[in-house]
Amino acid sequence: MSTEPEFKERLSNSYLFGSNAPYVEELYESYLEDPASVPDQWRTYFDQLQHLPATDGNEQTRDQAHAPIIESFAQRAKANAFLVHAAAPDLTVASKQVSVQSLIAAYRSLGARVAQLDPLKRQDRPQIPELDPAFYGLTEADLDQVYSATNTYFTKADTMTLRDMLKALRDTYCQSIGAEFMYISDPAAKRWIQERLEAGGVPAFPAQRKRNILQQLTEAEGLERFLHTKYVGQKRFSLEGGESFIASMDEVVNHASESGVQEVIVGMAHRGRLNMLVNIMGKMPGDLFAEFEGKHPDGLTDGDVKYHNGFSSDLSARGGPVHLSLAFNPSHLEIVNPVVEGSTRARQDRRGDEDGSQVLPVLVHGDAAFAGQGVVMETLNLAQTRGYGTGGTLHIVINNQIGFTTSDPRDTRSTLYCTDVVKMIEAPVFHVNGDDPEAVVYVTQLALDYRQKFRHDVVVDIVCFRKLGHNEQDTPALTQPLMYKSIGKHPGTRKLYADKLVAQNVLTEEEAEQMVKDYRLVMEDGKRTIEPVLTDHKSKYATDWTPFLDAKWTDQADTAVPLTELTRIGEKLTTVPEGFTVHPLVNRLLNDRRAMARGELPLDWGMGEHLAFATLVASGYPIRITGQDSGRGTFTHRHAVLHDQKRERWNDGTYIPLQNVSPNQGSFTVIDSVLSEEAVLGFEYGYASAEPNTLTIWEAQFGDFVNGAQVVIDQFIASGEAKWGRYCGLTMMLPHGYEGQGPEHSSARIERFLQLCADNNIQVVQPTNGAQIFHLLRRQMIRPFRKPLVIMTPKSLLRNKDAGVPLSQLAEGQFQPVIGEVDASIDPAGVTRVLACSGKVYYDLVNARKEAQRNDVAIIRVEQLYPFAHKAFETELRKYGNAKEVVWVQDEPQNQGPWFYIQHHLYENMTAGQKLGYAGRPASSSPAVGYLAKHQEQQRQLLEQAFSAKHKGFTLTK
């Protein structure tokens, strides 16, 4: 057995040790995890060690014991050129040290597998051979040997006995905390976590801190038991079994405030939400009880169930005041995630909080939803992107180990942990036993510190259980008998922790029971449980929604801009910096736009849109537009971002004219988004809901792709105001039009939006020229209210010369929800049929009428489908007193498009004796045909229907 002086001398005699030891050890450790992570010359060297003859003549592999490999490693070290001294080292010590290093790496990587995480203790912990010293050839005799500890943080000394090191490894990685982080590619981040876990671990909290944790558990349990007896059988999605979550959230608010966080934005589904509202956010219990009793606040047309509602409060925390906001959330579980991220980003932008140090997003997940809902992955993918990053999100999983009542955990996912999805962005995960509230508080601190230092997502997975069913009307023992036998025997986290503190003489049993009685009295009085809530605190960064409250709907707005200003801005938009080389096609577009701004060419859609953006930012309105092709535009019509042809894009060889319109202008942000609809649209909804003074736009690559975000439309955009009183001015641009491009590149599903229209909740429009989009975009910001705007944007009309308009239409007038007949050769007295339509088909009808010489037909364009402008439409229709036929014409199939929505609006404005008919494609299960020839034939037929001498298929007579 070597003495410690002899061992230290040997350390200086080999490149495996001495000053080189940490480097070589870390290389070998990295190789064991991932051979591709080390330099080629080292990988080749280690590969050779992996194929050594064993004593039985067979070849060793990486999955077998490492002793022969380590022995060879030491043998080669003897002759290596890196030797510091000529003296030959003890090769036995060298091989043992490498074995110890392998053991350390195994505990860091696999220790979580055997950690004591389950409060129910239902499953045996697996046998992991790599965690057994014998796997590396280490024996009982080696336990008291001294080895290098320079690559660990258990001790300040350079060495430790293997026995002490093994105990430290097990205490750190295999008790109430199971850490997963070794897959992180940033060495600094890995070392930081290792140091925090290995050098400290769960601290010895002072007595008063322990009392505070017990108080939080008492409140969490007390609220649930009070509700369970007072409102028997009512759904509330109880937190019982996961009470440590309240201790975690309390630490989130307080510890985050100590690092400079001033706002915390929380998204969570149902479980524990009512507990969060009362015991963390300070909602008055009496107000919650009123909701249980069916009462509701004034001002909401529909309202929502109590466990969907959001809340905001200002709390006094250890580091100063913190604004805490809980986002409203439908039953679509994780769909709130991108909404919270968008709201967070808006608040950060408003503060100029570029690194996210002041505003913290927190997402609370259920275990099955975290693993099962695809929007989780989409939202994670936003985390480190330029347009959507929020400086890292703290994820907390309330891990009930069951998902929902009838689910078998084996059927809820294909991964070992419900949190494995976060490994795609290399977020560390801290699994923690919910029955160890001190460990829960500690890993919450650890996770927050990691987020603040590395600006990266991090996960706290609170492994707990669910005492009751998925909701309080379930009987979970019907499908989970064994689990619920274990749960029935569990005394509760509060009781376990109280007994622990009594045993530690922190308080008496009577004092612990008095906490329970005191909280019960607070509940019976309906008083606020959290003090102090700062009722008079007002942040200078808070959004003032007052100007937008109670504003009545109007189509009118003063959106005109003087010609001189339009020309000035047009010059700015078409001028590039000296030495900047644009593509020849873009140069031609800029020249055309310059001519448009001077009134020398008709104004097209792209220039109308640009002038709307430019005049708004010049007036101080920020603009944010995102989508998969938003910089250039899917149909290359926008070119908001110009690229220097002599520099690569990724070297930032770009110029954005809209950022250079006027001094002190509003910001203009354009983002080519990740390939996502659901998460990105949810993000932009959240952004617009938190920032009413910014024109926030999401643009689909093709309008059809909005289908992938239908939940965001249904649950937030269309109904958020009616359910929750949440105003939002989000604008959606959805390219729509039948151009023969097949079923997935034609329809933005206008009919689905129109089915959602009621109570003036959204605006659905289909503008047909550059002046209309100019006035429409400006109207969205200038009017004193905020409503979501859905724009069916064109494709072929972007370049259709018939759609060009004079610049003067921007300097006068406003957005027209209905555009009447513009052909002066049409005599109103001679009109016998009126065609009403929306969108591109208008130009098809105009050309068909000219070809057929049908001056007895007038055409009215409905530019705003909802809210339907009855007065404007009636005014146009009344011009044709001799018209006996009103025909709605659309591109879409009869069972789609606006037809079934709009027919009763048309009928309401018709006069006695008039008949209402339809011209368009026949009903279809597909949005459009895939064959160009068939598309063209259908287009010909619908035009023939519109102008046929005797129209067939009239449906109504006034």
Please supply descriptive tags for the structure shown above.
958 residues, alpha/beta, Rossmann fold, eight-stranded mixed β-sheet, seven-stranded mixed β-sheet, 31 helices, 25 strands, 38% helix, elongated, disordered N terminus, thiamine pyrophosphate, thiamine pyrophosphate binding, 2-oxoglutarate dehydrogenase E1 component, EC 1.2.4.2
Describe this protein's structure.
The protein is of the alpha/beta class and 958 residues long. The chain has four domains: 4-199, no CATH class; 212-294 and 303-525, 3-Layer(aba) Sandwich (Rossmann fold), CATH 3.40.50.970; 605-638 and 664-808, Rossmann fold, CATH 3.40.50.12470; 819-957, Multifunctional 2-oxoglutarate metabolism enzyme, C-terminal domain (Rossmann fold, 3-Layer(aba) Sandwich), CATH 3.40.50.11610. It has 31 helices and 25 strands. Strands 3-9-10-8-7-4-6-5 form an eight-stranded mixed sheet. The longest helix has 24 residues, at 207-230. The N and C termini lie far apart (107 Å). Mean pLDDT is 88; it is low at 1-22, 52-65 and 71-89.
